[in-house]
Specification:
Strand content of chain A: 15-25%
Radius of gyration of chain A: 18 Å
Distance between the termini of chain B: 81 Å
Largest interface: A-B, 19 and 22 residues
Largest sheet of chain A: 5 strands, parallel
Shape of chain B: flat
Distance between the termini of chain A: 26 Å
Structural class of chain B: alpha/beta
Number of strands of chain A: 12
Radius of gyration of chain B: 44 Å
Oligomer: heterodimer
Strand order of the largest sheet of chain A: 2-1-3-4-5
Number of helices of chain A: 8
Strand order of the largest sheet of chain B: 3-2-6-7-1-8
Order of helices and strands of chain A: EHEHEHEHEHEEEEHEHHEE
Shape of chain A: globular
Number of helices of chain B: 28
Helix content of chain A: 40-55%
Chain lengths: 229, 890
């Protein structure tokens, strides 16, 4: 594969050590890399380099990471994976709500990072979600509104189905509580997260083998939910 | 073995005295007095010359106040010196120039020149006298050069008056002479001085010209000169004595004499005080001044209060230790005080009453002499005659009590009428009984003088109306004289007995009132746990005991703040400035004191042996109340008690803080140990693995490399967890933890925790038992997940790999019970509470060591939720941690 056809990754991070580390592990894979060491340079590079994915650090010397996401989102839908030492959920929620696609807390495992990158790439490459989502025993047929576990049909309420459908269309990506609430219930329900919790709890009982050890709908504590991919 | 040297080693007391004196002078400024014996000897001139010399030496010299009186020589010397502008004080339409004390204190020179030490300041100044200004300057650590004439010294005041016939009103306490670091005697022969006077070189105010002429007689001047030379010599003598004492030079030391003088409101008391002071000086003795308040004194004491007050202040100013006691019997009180204070000499005034009165009542001097035992009695005579009242007995003035005497007259008249009615039936001798009855009634009901009057009137009336021949004072039968005498003696005895009983009761009552108010205060103070309670207690007690208004001011940074004040009492800036002065100088100030007397309140420092904690301002209802010894004593006791209570609270708070500090230090040490250990250990393995892979990478088998990398990874993760724990702990400690409470599903909570620990726990079985009907629980899911993760990690760490971990949740009585149980070794019973302490680690097998933070973080988080966490050992072995969370958040 020629370099032009490789997926392009833009790394925006001010720490040289991190950039070097990312460079090492990502160049082993088939990616074309570009690096920027601050927010402004990153924004310029995003315009010039046209990356397929952006790895963004939140603690930049010139611009706050959230600000970078907001500015990027004004004109681009490029997937953004945030890499940050900020482990507080509020930071994650802020980044995700601003338009980031994923969030990884430093330090992270290489495998984890690569999986997230691939998931993001896959999502961005496919404009329309696949009509049928399959993961282990769970299958969701969006065209027929049919959900099966190991081939057996599961009966869901309309709300549960709406939630599942939303998650299927963003499989692998963290959806924040407010994102789900807004999409499924509408803006009026933003302050009622327990409605969501009750529905997720019910949904898990129906599709999870052991609801205490969920395999499909994963809780990101304080942030939201993610459907495994 | 003791050597000869031991005997002449300076005594510890002597060394201590010297050390204290040095210590005091080290903090204070040094006082240099230019002492003269009359105006015109050249004190100011000498002072200015010395000042110029100092300035030439490079010292910072400031002229605080020097009056040149237009003399050109003085003006010449003044030129080139730094002169502080004077303060203008407007008083009854006249502007009076005064020394700017605050200006000096603000400017802080090294040396200040202050002319005329004995000067009285204009009303409205901070202090009444300039020497008080000087004391304040010295206290600020500034050296003072000053001038004064010998006749202004308090103890010599009356001697000078005797010599010159001029009474000097402006006096300076003798202690300033003792305080002086250096005394420079400015001495010129009297002839030269008179010469200068004639040449017009001596400044004399016009209005005083006549008096001065009388003053500047050679005889006067010689006497004054001698006085000043003697006074200076005696000081030199003192210094030499002190030197000899510290250098162990043996000498004939006078035995330590202790003198006692009693004072009253009599004008002669002043003389007595001065005489005692001089005597004490000569004997190098400590001296005491005693005022005895007798209940008989009642009324007169009220009138004399001002003078008594002044006398006691005079004595204090002259260096006496002043005390006042209340007693019915003066002799008893004097002897008791003398015994208690080891008095060696009692100074009394020569009695000058007519002899006949001595027959009726033995003079107090005689009674004291009779009972003096080993104590010497020094009898001092006065130039003028009169009165033994100087002994401190304040007797009633002859003011006529109309009501009392009228009553006495009526009683006698009634007895007479009764006798007249019964005259046909009674012999005259028996009529005496009615008069006796009148005397008894008078003694019980009236004061002692009207009672005695009743005795006299009764005797006269009986004689006049009933003893034959009637209606004359002639007595026919000599037997009746015996009847008169009987009536007279019985009447006197009864009236004096009753009077004495009444006095005793009065004394007891007033003592009891004082004791009771002190008792109430100390009781309230003992019950006060914090400073505000103390202040409130003091305020309430002073208000009640003295019928006064109170304000208590405590330092708050640079200023005094009013911390407690009576209703309706407000202090303006001026009052607060007085309070501030009292605080800074640790000396009472304000009304009825020496300093800033124009204030509305009296301000007393709340002092303890070690420091001044604040100031109490008191406003009494009447002017006289300020001068009452009882009140002042009570106020002193109140301030002392209040200060002690405040200090007690301060100390206990300090002790508490010291304890907290100690605990924190221990914690910090544990933290540092933990950090250095727990951060380094994983780094050691990670670094080791990396370096071995880098250097030996090719020689290692795949298996070995895999193992090394696994261990490095798990160590790095451990390091990350530890840092996370430290951060969490810091947040919890800093109170920065903010709960994001939402209704959460317990199953979700457990799921999250299991997911987070999945990698570490691996295949170990975790038994989850959740009640079916669990409601949504209000909690911060993130933090509670962390709690559960920590508990699972612990259980995993301590229990053997085959055993299972149990997680269960139920609800009961409004609480969610969430248990995590393992089958590990458990915790020693006595440590069950301590497991939640920071850096507590269960003594466990090598290698499983945690950070000692996990459980304390759990505790912090659970308690922030309003919940509880506890540990218990399970039957059959193992540890169970029980978390209780409220089902409804407040």
């Amino acid at each position: 594969m020629s370099a032009e056809n490789l997926p392009r990754i833009l790394i925006i991070d001010d720490e040289l050590a991190i950039r070097r580390f990312l460079h090492t592990i990502l160049s082993c894979e088939d990616f074309s890399l570009h690096e920027a060491e601050n927010g402004h340079a990153g924004l310029a590079a995003a315009a010039a380099f046209k990356p397929d994915i952006i790895l963004l650090d939140l603690g930049l010397p010139d611009l706050d990471g959230i600000e970078v996401i907001t500015r990027l989102r004004e004109w681009s839908k490029v997937p953004i994976i945030v890499l940050s030492v900020r482990e507080h959920e509020n930071d994650k929620v802020a980044a995700l709500n601003a338009g980031a696609d994923d969030y990884l807390t430093k330090p992270f495992g290489v495998g984890e990072l690569l999986a997230r990158i691939r998931a993001a790439l896959r999502r961005s490459l496919q404009e329309v979600p696949e009509p049928i989502y399959t993961c282990n025993d769970l299958q969701v047929d969006l065209t027929r509104r049919l959900v099966t576990i190991s081939g057996e049909e599961v009966s869901l309420t309309p709300t549960e189905y709406d939630i599942l459908r939303l998650m299927v269309s963003h499989a692998g990506k963290v959806l924040t509580h407010s994102q789900i609430l807004k999409q499924v219930w509408g803006i009026a329900y933003l302050e009622q997260p327990h409605v969501l919790r009750v529905n997720i709890s019910n949904l898990r009982r129906k599709i999870e083998a052991d609801p205490s050890r969920p395999r499909h709908i994963i809780t990101e504590p304080g942030v939201g939910y993610r459907l495994t991919f | 073995m003791p050597t000869d040297n031991d005997d002449i080693r300076p005594s510890p007391e002597a060394m201590l005295k010297l050390a204290q004196a040095e210590e005091v002078t080290a903090e204070l400024g040094k006082l240099k007095i230019f002492l003269g014996y009359a105006a015109g000897v050249g004190k100011t001139y000498a002072m200015l010359e010395a000042a110029r010399q100092r300035k030439h030496d490079g010292r910072d010299v400031l002229v605080g106040y020097v009056e040149s009186h237009g003399r050109p020589e003085t003006d010449v010397l003044l030129a080139g010196l730094d002169v502080l502008p004077r303060r203008e004080i407007l008083y009854t339409g006249v502007t009076l120039p005064e020394m700017d004390l605050d200006g000096i204190l603000a400017r802080r020179p090294q040396i200040v020149l202050v002319d005329e030490l004995a000067h009285s300041n204009a009303p409205g100044s901070r202090h009444e006298k300039r020497w008080q200004d000087v004391e304040e300057i010295l206290a600020a650590g500034i050296d003072v050069y000053t001038t004064v004439n010998i006749q202004h010294f308090e103890s010599l005041n009356d001697v000078v008056a005797q010599i010159t016939g001029i009474i000097v009103r402006e006096t300076v306490p003798d202690r300033l002479l003792d305080l002086a670091f250096e005394i420079k005697l400015i001495d010129i022969p009297p002839e030269d001085l008179i010469q200068r006077l004639h040449e017009g070189k001596v400044y004399i105010p016009d209005q005083a010209a006549k008096a001065i002429e009388k003053f500047f007689r050679p005889g006067n001047l010689m006497a004054l000169r001698e006085l000043s030379l003697r006074r200076t010599a005696s000081r030199v003598d003192d210094q030499m004595r002190a030197y000899m004492e510290t250098q162990s030079i043996a000498g004939p030391w006078p035995t330590a004499e202790r003198l006692l003088v009693c004072v009253s409101g009599s004008p002669y008391s002043e003389k007595l005080i001065r005489a005692t002071c001089r005597l004490a000086e000569e004997l190098k003795a400590q001296w005491f001044t005693l005022y005895i308040e007798t209940p008989q004194g009642g009324k007169q004491v009220e009138e004399n209060r001002g003078r008594i007050w002044q006398n006691l202040r005079l004595a204090e100013g002259l260096g006496a230790q002043v005390a006042s006691v209340t007693a019915t019997d003066v002799t008893d009180a004097v002897m008791e005080y003398a015994g208690r204070h080891n008095i060696s000499k009692i100074v009394v005034g020569k009695p000058s009453r007519p002899r006949w009165r001595e027959i009726l009542q033995q003079p107090i001097v005689d009674r004291i002499i009779r009972r003096s035992g080993a104590v010497d009695i020094v009898v001092v005579s006065f130039a003028q005659e009169k009165s033994d009242e100087d002994l401190g007995v304040s007797r009633k003035s002859p003011s006529f009590e109309v009501s009392g005497y009228t009553a006495s007259l009526l009683l006698v008249a009634a007895a007479t009428v009764l006798c007249e009615l019964l005259r046909p039936y009674l012999a005259p001798t028996n009529m005496v009984m009615f008069y006796l009855l009148a005397v008894v009634v008078a003694s019980v009901r009236l004061e002692s003088k009207p009672a005695i009057t009743t005795v006299f009137l009764g005797v006269l009336a009986f004689n006049f109306f009933f003893v034959p021949p009637r209606l004359t004072f002639v007595v026919a039968d000599a037997q009746y004289l015996l009847t008169f005498l009987g009536l007279f003696v019985v009447g006197m005895v009864i009236s004096s007995l009753v009077a004495r009983a009444r006095e005793r009761a009065e004394v007891m009552r007033s003592r009891e009132v004082q004791t009771a108010s002190l008792y109430y205060l100390s009781r309230d103070l003992a019950a006060s746990a914090d400073i505000n309670a103390v202040l409130k207690a003091v305020q309430r007690n002073v208000e009640e005991a003295l019928d006064a208004q109170v304000a208590i001011l405590l330092p708050e940074g640079e200023h005094l703040d009013i911390m407690a004040a009576s209703v309706g009492l407000s202090l303006d800036i001026k009052e607060q400035a007085v309070a501030d002065w009292a605080f800074r100088n640790n000396h009472q100030a304000g009304r009825a004191t020496d300093t800033l007397v124009s204030a509305d309140l009296i301000y007393l420092p709340l002092q303890t042996p070690s420091s001044v904690l604040g100031v109490m301002g008191v406003k009494l209802m009447h002017q006289l109340a300020y001068h009452s010894q009882d009140n002042r004593r009570l106020l002193d006791a109140f301030t002392t008690q209040a200060a002690m209570a405040m200090e007690r609270i301060r100390f206990s708070r300090q002790a508490e803080q010291a304890q907290i500090l100690q605990a924190r230090e221990n914690l910090e040490r544990a933290l540092l140990n933990s950090i250095s250990h727990d951060l380094r250990t994983p780094l050691v393995s990670v670094t080791g693995v990396l370096s071995s892979l880098k250097e030996e990478g090719t020689h290692l088998s795949d298996h070995a490399r895999r193992e090394l990398l696994d261990s490095a990874c798990s160590e790095a993760e451990r390091l990350n967890r530890f840092v996370g724990n430290l951060l969490d702990m810091t947040r919890i400690e800093a109170g920065a933890i903010r709960l994001n409470i939402e209704l959460c599903d317990v199953q979700d909570l457990v799921g999250c925790a299991l997911a987070a620990t999945e990698q570490r726990i691996g295949n170990r079985s975790v038994d989850i038992r959740l009640a079916d009907d669990l409601p949504l629980i209000p909690m911060d899911l993130v933090l509670m997940t962390q709690v559960l993760v920590n508990l699972l990690d612990n259980a995993h760490k301590y229990a053997s790999a085959e055993s299972s971990i149990e997680v269960s949740a139920t609800t009961e009585n409004g609480w969610l019970f969430l248990d995590v149980s393992d089958r590990g070794p458990g915790v020693p019973e006595q440590d069950l509470k301590r497991v939640f302490d920071k850096f507590y680690r269960i003594p466990i097998p090598e290698g499983a060591g945690g950070t000692g933070l996990g459980l304390s973080i759990c505790k912090g988080i659970v308690e922030a939720h309003g919940g509880k966490i506890s540990a218990e050992n399970r039957t059959g072995g193992g540890l169970r941690i029980v978390i209780r969370l409220p089902l409804v958040q407040k």
